[in-house]
Amino acid sequence: MTLVEVKNLGKSYNAQTRVLKDVSFEVEAGEFVSIIGLSGAGKSTLLRCINRMVEIDEGNVIFDGLDVGSLNKQELRKMRTNIGMIFQHYNLVPRLSVIENVLHGRLGYKTTLQGVFNRFTELEKEHAFFLLEKLGIADHAYKRCDQLSGGQQQRVGIARSLIQEPKLVLCDEPIASLDPNSSEIIMDYLKSITKELNIACIVNLHQVEIACSYSDRIIGLSKGNVVFDGPSFMLTSAHTDEIYGTKTVETRKLVTV
Ligand SMILES: Nc1ncnc2c1ncn2[C@@H]1O[C@H](COP(=O)(O)OP(=O)(O)OP(=O)(O)O)[C@@H](O)[C@H]1O
């Protein structure tokens, strides 16, 4: 079933530059898709158009049957409860505990008053513990988030997005601040939850090798255009040359770190 449909999407932040140009693709439930491209290619902008963290200028994004660009504030808030977001720098509240940060993922379902007073149900608390257990960090539930390693903080970020019970998770360079070992753990979790929960996961990545080994599909962006869209095993060095605009693996490694 098609969950996300991006149709002829265009985005400009100013009159001089079109950051996204006629971008079209579809993502199914259960699909793990990586978006790769040079810095400035438009990867973050694309993710942010999907949940309308930035406004859509041209074309449409259809999420779960809804035309994202035409939703009013209330409809948009409701739609966003179905979309988890994971960030490079985790976006946690450092002075709050792990469990409190996870529960923040439920705020989209609360009234302002319930949110202000942190009113969470027993069921929500149990769910938060279940997720922490699943992600191997239940022992840290009452620690402040800033006492955790980067990899552990990213696992809190994943738990916070999963407690929303999303249909889609958008990950903006989730492993860019992590060492190889922690990166592998995070990618393993993202991949397994996508399959287990039959949700879709769209991940912006700088590391081509990791994108290839984890993704069902890769979308290559170059200067705001989709220049590759296909199964990861079909991505050849000619495609990566086009995406990164460089011929040698060594140079590519240099431009993608
Ligand atoms: N809020 C903004 N206002 C103006 N220009 C912006 C804004 N956000 C991004 N841009 C510009 O849009 C272009 C694409 O940026 P974007 O962050 O989407 O690229 P990216 O591929 O995610 O890059 P990176 O890998 O470095 O995060 C860049 O030229 C950037 O400077």
TrEMBL record:
Mention one GO molecular function. ABC-type phosphonate transporter activity
Q: Which GO terms describe its cellular component?
A: membrane
Q: Which UniProt keywords apply?
A: ATP-binding, Cell membrane, Membrane, Nucleotide-binding, Phosphonate transport, Translocase, Transport
ABC transporter domain location: 4-248
Q: Which PROSITE patterns match?
A: ABC_TRANSPORTER_1 (PS00211), ABC_TRANSPORTER_2 (PS50893)
PANTHER family noted in UniProt: AMINO ACID IMPORT ATP-BINDING PROTEIN (PTHR43166), PHOSPHONATES IMPORT ATP-BINDING PROTEIN PHNC (PTHR43166:SF6)
Q: Give the protein's recorded name.
A: Phosphonate ABC transporter ATP-binding protein
This chain's source organism reads Psychrobacillus lasiicapitis
Output the lineage of the source organism. Bacteria, Bacillati, Bacillota, Bacilli, Bacillales
Task: Point out the gene that encodes the protein.
Answer: phnC
